[in-house]
Design goal:
By secondary structure, the chain is of the alpha/beta class. The protein is built from eight helices and 13 strands.
Length: about 260
Amino acid sequence: MTAEYELFALRYASRPAMRHEHFIGGDPHDGPMPMDYFVWVAKNADRAVVIDIGFTEASGGKRGRTMDRCPIDSLPMLGVDPAAVEDVILTHMHYDHVGNFHKFPKARFHLQEPEMHYAVGRYMRHRQLAKSFEPDDVCGIVRLNFDGRVHYSNGPAEIVPGISVVPTGGHSVGLQFVKVNTKRGVVVLASDVTHFYENMDTYRPFTTAFHVGEMLEAFDTLRAHAASADLIVPGHDPLVMQRYPAVSEALQGIAVRLDVAPSA
């Protein structure tokens, strides 16, 4: 029997933005389109797996992001002790997904190997690509690798029973999305494969891109791995907080359950 997990999205930050910032080629009907920042947690009686770990106050602050709470210090609100977590999945190494590695003293970090090559390779001489990375974060993961704490995949892989990853590239060379088995079926955590529902629904990729063709094809890959569209959860869309129920009254506006069907 496949392992089953409770699944949560924890919102830790936001930023005001306009529609033209989120679609290659802009948008003819420009207007406000804010962005939320999440980490995700899958847990059952055997383990808790953290998926992406957010940015630090320093790296977010210099980019003008509003940090409402440290995502890792907030994990106990979901019954998770960061010091006890053994597996962290990094969908990619952009600053807002990898900034708090130092808060997990015993975890293994799961990453697509091409993403590390990208983050330390020749393309980082281009400011347009390098601006999404924080050098201290990249160096931190390199050091963890020397400590034997980074597990690399080169393609689809099962990380633990009931949780697997699928690489797509596009937004970043080694970007991967995560599939989690829950009571409502296999939920596909898209991360930055689609920042918003609208990127995927309209086939208009996000503006931060390494390979536009791979970004477009990745929308189809997401759909191929989801039994229905409502099992796909985008990486930065405020609608996630509206469509899914809060974990509790106390966590209203902070954390929602993804292992139950959305309201719309």
